[in-house]
Amino acid sequence: MDQPIVGFHQDEEGHWVAELACGHNQHVRHDPPWQNRPWVVTAAGREATKGQVLPCRKCEQGAPRDWWPTPPA
Asked: What is the pTM of this model?
């Protein structure tokens, strides 16, 4: 199920995590050749992708939200 990106934060290892409108989080690494997401390495790139959608496997699995009621600061 596609969900829009509403924000970003870094995990404890410094990896970028997208916060989705559904309340789930999803890592968005730029790790060529496996994942090609160069936009994640800059603040401008992350800001430009807010509102774009990512497939949320957690929604498809019926998983509980990762955050409630708002994403982490």
From this structure: 0.87
